[in-house]
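Dear colleague,

As promised, here are the two records you asked about, laid out in our usual form so they can be pasted straight into your sheet.

NAME FIELD: protein one
SEQUENCE, THEN STRUCTURE:
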Amino acid sequence: MKQEKYTFTYIDEFGDTCSANFRLNEYHSLMDLLFDKYLQEWGDCKGRAWCGTCHIQILEGQLSAKMQSDEKHTLSKLDGASTQSRLACQIPVNSELNNMVIKVITENDYGSN
């Protein structure tokens, strides 16, 4: 039986809107998926929620899982963090990502106004 494909939209550091496809449990985290398929220079702490290099903001959609204390602590130290901010390394690749829209937040955010 073939697994269903899911899709989400992300806005990269240049302000370009891109589409990403995935299957359930294809990757451990959203950071792994984006790093492997689309982005580079991510995940300095290898997914431990320490560095904040995988900072994203959820523009459309929501996640049911509550944020853990390590993620909250790291986000509290980041410039530009908001109530929509999350660390991609802490987001599992599951059906909740389907049709979600996220924005990748970087220090070099060329797409900002």
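NAME FIELD: protein two
SEQUENCE, THEN STRUCTURE:
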Amino acid sequence: MSDKTLTRMELSEAVFRTVGLSRNESADLVESVLNHLSDALVAGETVKISSFGTFSVRSKSARVGRNPKTGEEVPIEPRRVLTFRPSHIMKERVDAGNKNQR
């Protein structure tokens, strides 16, 4: 498994090389897309990217957790969490990549 992380700068560089926009325009485009995604998720909308996957926000209710060191019960506040479900195409691509690395 690789320890490499894809950054915003690398995404905008890929847009620059592929689409042919200037570096600044590419960076602005990547920022704009990420801002639209985050704004939609904050508003509670589901974001579906065809052939990639679906991002959605789930509400989790309050519950009692346990401190693993002490065993002490600790209340966990209700919260909203981000979930991602990859498309079957993405799952197949990742699986094929895993087979190539073995």
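A couple of things worth noting about protein two: The chain has a mean pLDDT of 93. The chain has three helices and five strands.

Best,
R.
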